[in-house]
Amino acid sequence: MDGTDASIGAALARILAGSMAEREETATLDFKEAPTARGRRSASEVQGELERIIVDACLCFANGDGGIVVLGVADRTPGAAAFVGTDTDAERLKSRVYQLSQPPLLVDVRERVFADARLLELRVPRGIEVHADSQGRARRRIGTDCHPMSPAEIVLVRQERSGYDPSATRTQRTVDDVEPEALAACRRLLASLTDLRRGYAELRTPDLLSALGVTDGGKLTRAGEILLCRPSTHTVVYLYRDSPGGEPRAVERLDMPLALSYLEVLRLVNARRNLTPVTLPTGQQLQIEDFPDLAVREAVMNALVHRDVHQPHSVVIDHSPQILTVTSPGPLVSGITVDNILTAASRPRNPRLMGAVRTLGLSEETGRGVDRMYREMIRSGRALPFIRAEFDHVTVSMVGGAPNVAIARFVAALPDAEREDTDTLMIVLYLCDHENVTAAAIAPRLQRPAEEAESILRRLATGQDGLLDISRSTARRRYGRYRLREHARMALGTALAYRVRNADEIDRRVVEHVREYGWITNRTVQNLCAVDVYQARRWLADLRRRGLLVQVTEGRSSGPGIRYGPGPAFPGRPGRDPVGPNRPTGLTGPDGPDRDNWSRVGWRLTADLSGCRLLSGRRSQAREEGQGRASLYAVAQCGSV
């Protein structure tokens, strides 16, 4: 079974378990059911409607990034009832998709039996051309919906899929039209490099332009015009506000070549940068930027280089101390979505322009700029960037303000390999809000198949210095459940959303644990509450002082392994632990004369136990976090009260 089969199977399983098909749909997965014969419609009319529905769904995928249509599942019905199945002939459906599309679209149709229902899977490849229906209408999949394509969109998609590069077209501009300041900026950038490109800075202007790949037959290409010539109108608008919803305090409209406008935007952002000092355990001090410089560089450069050069609109940078937003004209490049932008292979809309920018050292050759943006935001103790893609523009938003210092400090102390690994940092960030993580939960965030996500999780759970622990109950399973190791939880401290923060929460967690397992230790409190040994010791001392716990380990008086059981003030469970005059008395242990009361009540007593003495013994079947099957119990032996 390949990754696609596994993802479909997982979605079907979730529907069977109570989800609905419409919730499981993605940018590449759609569920359909056959229309019913309402009124006096004939069977042929119903079949015709089904074919139109399926053809439309297939064309949407072909004009998008490809995908799978599953026929035989109701959209809004949860559980087994959703699997209505279909008796449609697979070969006929395949033929009708081919016949009703222009140019003809060939899909792969497979049968699948699930929950006793026959389903059809239509696997649609990403089209080389733009496909339309028999009436010439073209639609494409964006997110989980199909949208009509405008003539301009059709032209753009055709150009991208045919390999057309708008930035490679020859203009009427010559070397004489190049802005001297832009050319000087390029020479400075090249001179700052440490490889062979450094020598380009000394080349004659025609040779330098040729090395950048922005000339053709003595004329500048569109890439050269954008990079080095003054535009006819402003191409970048920079706004600064004191708050995201406030009026702009500064507005800069830049009518400069890209080589200058990019550097000017960075200068404007840096001029209003705020820094937060963070001291590491080693004594080293870091300066955390409200918007990491590398993340800003990538967001701005992507907007300038990947924009639709046919649109007259400007790139807009909206800056406040809390949010930095970069908006670029034009949609995402065909094949790139917000759901795969982290891991998809680079597909520049303007390859010649991108090549020149990379030669200048302004963009990564590997095309992992978004990956770097995510990594830098986490390293600075901030939330992930938010990317919103519309049909005519793309927006990247980064949240600034006060950083989460605990996360920034933790990441700074990681080994170099993990500190530079975006997958690792995204998993750490996820575990700051969730106590556990699975491959199924993290895979969509990493934008990887579940199998790859599981491999990453297992790597992080390997070795003495690993960041994660796998639960014993899932260690031998194909997919495990993981949580941060104790040292990681201690280091992250207040960054953990589930970290205990008040006395009531401490009491609740300790009481629940003791009820479940019979006892608790300092080490367990550390794990439950994400605190160090000293804080756990203080909490246990307070719980003993208030009578909620008593020590049940004999012989020793201190240490992280000392066990504590219920004390005289330990609360009972509603409806199970008798309180007041109906409480059982004369309990002598699980084998005593009141064994029925013992099995019902155990040692969970809330009565006034004056005159009682504390016994300790063995209680089988109790365990703490899967370690062992026996633990100490504490019980009060009472006479008549």
What does this structure look like?
InterPro entries: RecG_C_sf (IPR038475), Schlafen_AlbA_2_dom (IPR007421), Schlafen_AlbA_2_dom_sf (IPR038461), WH-like_DNA-bd_sf (IPR036388). Pfam families: HATPase_c_4 (PF13749), SLFN_AlbA_2 (PF04326). It comes from Candidatus Protofrankia datiscae. This is Putative transcriptional regulator. The structure is a single chain. Strand 7 (about 140) and strand 8 form a beta hairpin. The longest helix has 21 residues, at about 45-65. Among the domains are: about 5-150, 2-Layer Sandwich (Methyltransferase, Cobalt-precorrin-4 Transmethylase, Domain 2); about 415-495, Winged helix-like DNA-binding domain superfamily/Winged helix DNA-binding domain (Arc Repressor Mutant, subunit A, Orthogonal Bundle); about 505-635, Arc Repressor Mutant, subunit A (Orthogonal Bundle). Residues about 575-640 have low confidence and may be disordered. The termini are far apart. The protein is built from 22 helices and 26 strands.
Write the layout of secondary structure elements.
Layout: H1 3-16, H2 21-24, E1 29-32, H3 43-63, E2 67-71, H4 90-99, E3 101-102, E4 108-114, E5 117-124, E6 132-133, E7 139-142, E8 145-148, H5 151-162, H6 180-191, H7 205-212, E9 215-216, E10 219-220, H8 222-228, E11 236-241, E12 248-254, H9 258-271, E13 275-279, E14 285-289, H10 293-305, E15 315-319, E16 323-329, H11 351-359, H12 369-379, E17 386-389, E18 393-399, H13 405-412, H14 416-419, H15 422-431, E19 437-438, H16 439-446, H17 450-460, E20 468-470, E21 481-484, H18 486-492, H19 503-517, E22 520-521, H20 522-529, H21 533-545, E23 549-551, E24 563-566, H22 595-601, E25 613-620, E26 630-637
Region (Disordered): 560-597
Pfam families: HATPase_c_4, SLFN_AlbA_2
Domain Schlafen AlbA-2: 25-150
